[in-house]
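S.,

Sequence below, as promised.
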Amino acid sequence: MRKSLFGLTGLALVMMASGAAAQDPGPNAPVSYEVSFENAQHHEAKIVATYRDAPAGPLHVRMSRSSPGRYAIHEFAKNVYQVSAVDGAGKPLKVERTEPYGWSIAGHDGVVTVTYTLYADRGDGTYSQVDATHAHLNMPATFLWADGYDAKPIRVKFKRADAAWKIATQLPPVAGDADAFWAPNLQYFLDSPTEISAFALREWKVSDQGRDYTFRLALHHPGTDEDADQFTEKLKAIVPEHIKVFGELPKFDHGTYTFIADYMPQITGDGMEHRNSTFISQPRSLFRANFAQLGTASHELFHAWNVERLRPAELEPFDFTKANPTPSLWLAEGFTQYYGPLLIRRAGQSTTDEYLAILSGTLNGVVNGPGRLYGSPQEMSLRAPFVDAAAALDPVNANIFTSYYPYGAVIGLALDMQLRGRAKPLTLDDYMKRLWRTHGAPEKPYKPADLQTALAETTGDAAFANGFFKASIEGSALPDFAPLLEQAGLKLRPKSPKKAWLGAAKVRASGSEVILDQAPVPNSALYAAGVENGDRILSIGRFEFANEGDWTDALDRLKPGDATTVKYLQRGQLREAPLKVTADPTLEVVRFEKADLKPTKAQLAFRAAWLGAEPGAK
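The prediction came back faster than expected:
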């Protein structure tokens, strides 16, 4: 990609998007697209792209290989075909495919119009989907773009396949044309997903810092109007809690923020943040999921602050030609993961016990997961290009990675509890406010060292900040969570201490064979015995296996401390080894009240300050 794209900073983008210099470029925009869906039932879109004032020499057009909010490579060019081009007089031009991702077009007269077909049938935050019910368009997966036009304004016009279809996007509309929109430059355009369907629309106003903003929900779903209204009320309830964390709303470009929600059976579950909008998708309806989609919506809304404006330097500006790694996803994604369910609880949209069930799963997965043996939160962040919906044929050691989502969430919990327990109590909210003031609101991208500096400034304690980052960010140490959680009258305990644990529990039956279907955790019983994913388990002591029921029965009847043997078939080799059964290490967090303990007034006050008061609590 040409340097001009990488010369655009987030601050410049804001100025262009919201300042006087940013305006509709008109019908003769330097770049314009027309999109139609005549063959929608076969998942095809026809796209016509026109580039004006093209410099002398071949024009090179290409498809992106990455997408905002994703950190891995995605080969969008594979679904582009029937590429042709004409000049300003309609004369056909030769189109030469010079690489897998791009085409070169020579002999033009300063105008190049490229026509191509896009196949699209994966509806999520990364890809596009076109069918008879909608067009769900992630822009990097949909639109090719030309070298040298990175900073040029863009117009796009959609031809609806159905008169009932409407258009939802963060792109500003063209006055007098409900089907046309514009963008100040390529970065903004490719960060502006669009849904075209007969969606339900709900809108509400939020006032902040003397400004009024419009929040919109564009909901493509098979449910009722009552479902849409109920979901809207839940969204309205969580927005103020998000604002409280940072102290203010972002200054949304054009005064709007849009939840673009696809809850259709053909969709793929996902959530993807964008500057003034989010794509949130789930194949279950709101009713069938009991409105669990609120969790993804809360996570993505938090991103409007944390990652869209409070942004790692390595992601700014975004490079659409390659993977975009950063060592700071533990904060960008992980802290967002921490706050998503927490703010739902504070908004009264979940109970304390429901929140603690989520927290238990997250905390257990990180504390007992093997990934921390292989790297810190920064290391796991840098592995994102290999795991963030990346595809590969060769197998990967399942034990060496702990996702930066839960890992960062647990780091957020650890820091929040430590800050709240200081002699002069602080909160993680205080830390996020400082980061917002120093880097988010001014859109000054941060580097890892800036995060440590902000913690030192928040606490007035450089030694604490240095120790925390050295131990838990650059290293993989975690604090003892039991006393930290006791501050809130919460008990951290084994969930099933009398249950047997072998290091892996998932098996699959193939005829009368029982095959281990997950990698045993290092240092566990099965791992020490040499058993590996894919091995056939023949017996454990007197238990022989011919089906999954046999396996379940054995796990139910084995006891922690049992010493026995395991026989298994590994790649044609019959093996037998000693097996020492241990207790299930799964952890859970419960209220003292559910553990036959009585919390003190101080503990209850701590809990309420952190999680919010339960309805009806005094």
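Residues 225-246 form the longest helix (22 residues).

Coffee later?
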